[in-house]
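Morning, I've got a small favour to ask if you have a moment. I've been staring at a protein lately and its backbone has me curious. You're getting the sequence in one-letter code plus the fold written as tokens. I've dropped the whole record in just underneath, so have a look:
=====
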Amino acid sequence: MRLPEKYENEMKDLLQEEYEAYKESLGLPIQQGYRINTGKISKEEWEKIAPFSAKEVPWIENGYFLLDDFRASRHPYYFAGLYYLQEPSAMTPANRLNVEPGDFVLDLCAAPGGKATELGSRLKGKGMLVANDISNSRAKALLKNLELAGIANLYVTSEEPANLCQNFPEFFDKVLIDAPCSGEGMFHREPKMIEYWEKRGPEEYVPIQKQLILYGSRMLKPGGKLLYSTCTFSKKEDEEVIQWLLEQNTDMHLISIAPYEGFSKGFGLSECVRIFPHKMSGEGHFLALLEKKATEQDNTQKQKLQMGKELKLPNCVEEFFSLLKFPIDRSCLKLEKERLYLLPNAVKMPKLRYLRTGLLLGEVKKNRFEPSQALAMALKPEHFASCISIDSTDVRCVKYLKGETLDVSDLPCNNKKGWQLVCVERYPLGFGKLSNGILKNKYYAGWRWQ
């Protein structure tokens, strides 16, 4: 692999006697990985059904290395949102932020969703996730991955960080900033990054990174935690950005990250973590965990709840709601044009560029209600009146994902007519409508197996 001379000199200065070991690691096979979605399946359950060879990522409790070239994105379990394909080192930031159920969480640079999906699953349906990406096209991919993962308590935005900061002062318990960077840690996996580095080196990203971490710190509640990460080795983008923030914000301080024997300490800031590919089975990464000083008096912005009238719903919606086997807080419902949403926490949110506000339940079309793909992915079989479960090896499973009509007369279900939650071995894939043993396919066209 050809490396720019300037980059080689900087890495030699950074790594000293370890440089040759690093250089040799660039010739090793690329390590593929995936992380299971613990919001949908436990580790114990997954290991009973896992369809491909893997071994555990030792520093990520729900992470695995793929051991063969199995096309993991071409399996019904992937379409059920049971796992997310992710490079092992990139699993670390969301894992080490220690999100807890009930937290208000911000992922400031969230697309395509590898970290946001983990943050959302850790909330276990409580609290709220705001996932933002400044690029509208990337935010659309982010939304799909979050809905595939079954995350319901979310807002997906495509906003300038400055505007978010203005609207969310000291609002979040946890903030993740996986900052755009020069990508030096990805040269092994994506050699084309070298060309980008030669055009746009670390110096171009530092002002952006400083701006992002400053905004993130201002949106953090007193006592809250912020995790800053990059996939680059440059001290300018890593330790120097952290040092700059500490000088700007005296109420922020570094705290230790849960250790692993392969982690390296930051240069000059020992609480920071560096992941080097010659020391661990993963690409290059940098992490810093910061905490905002708690105040004796809580001056944070109080949550304003949308208390009030319960939304009057059309009869077709009420009829569909009778199939749901869990209570819905009607004060959290919002009907916008034809679309019905379930908002998280009934928190009054500012006017922003939203791609999604809460869980899209479905659309009211004339005198009928069409439930959404997002709702299907957020459900469990016991949450719906009637389910059809198809084995992953049954050809009808892939046919369903391709949008085909199915004969399911041999498969058991509670209701022999009407809406069905279609599952692969009890893990939801989408909806269908049953009549005389024939399932009319309602799988979302934009997600179909190609």
